[in-house]
Design brief:
186 residues; mainly alpha; Arc Repressor Mutant, subunit A; 2 domains; 0% strand
């Protein structure tokens, strides 16, 4: 027996599907409620407007993102893979299109979460260099995720985990170029 999605979840899912194809300015509430199978009144019982909906989705993602970072060793372990898999709709909707501003924002928020949780691993890295590197890695990851999602079943968690682990291995191979001690003589 499958659990019925709440109106809020249906609105969120419908919005993210539309957001994957278009910007917020190109989406109408009428389209969201039609896709969600609910009324405008139901929408407004949950959200004040489309920007409130987007803001709540965004805030919830980054709150959960911070929780995951606090609970992991900052590697692509099972907890992190689970988080990415559970939020694939968000990642594809906001970052799969290659929107540079969105990817930069994700990089900044990621660094803020690391700083907030004071991961000593990052203490000796120059912030701007780390931000540049994370933006580069996230751009590649998100573009690759978008391509992967277009060719594969996004509901196949094992396949997704293999995909993420392969990308993680590529990132780890290149991580040394970020360390100021390793690049001091360059």
């Amino acid at each position: 027996m499958t659990k019925k999605k709440s109106i809020r979840e249906r609105i969120r899912s419908a919005y993210l599907e539309l957001r994957r194809m278009r910007s917020i300015r190109q989406i109408r509430i009428k389209e969201i409620v039609e896709a969600a199978g609910c009324s405008r009144r139901s929408f407004y019982n949950e959200f004040s407007d489309i920007y409130d909906l987007e803001g709540q989705i965004y805030d919830e993602f980054f709150r959960r993102f911070g929780d995951v970072i606090r609970s992991t060793d900052n590697s692509f372990n099972e907890t992190f893979i689970d988080f990415l898999f559970d939020n694939i709709d968000f990642l594809l909707a906001y970052y799969g299109s290659g929107d540079v501003e969105a990817i930069n924002d994700l990089s900044v928020r990621y660094l803020e979460a690391l700083k907030e949780n004071h991961d000593p691993m990052y203490d000796h890295f120059h912030y701007d260099r780390l931000l540049q590197y994370l933006t580069y890695c996230l751009s590649g990851f998100l573009a690759t995720l978008n391509y992967w999602a277009s060719k594969n079943d996004v509901n196949d968690k094992e396949q997704f985990a293999r995909f993420v682990k392969e990308l993680q291995e590529d990132i780890v191979r290149n991580w040394g170029s970020l360390d100021p001690e390793a690049t001091a003589g360059r």
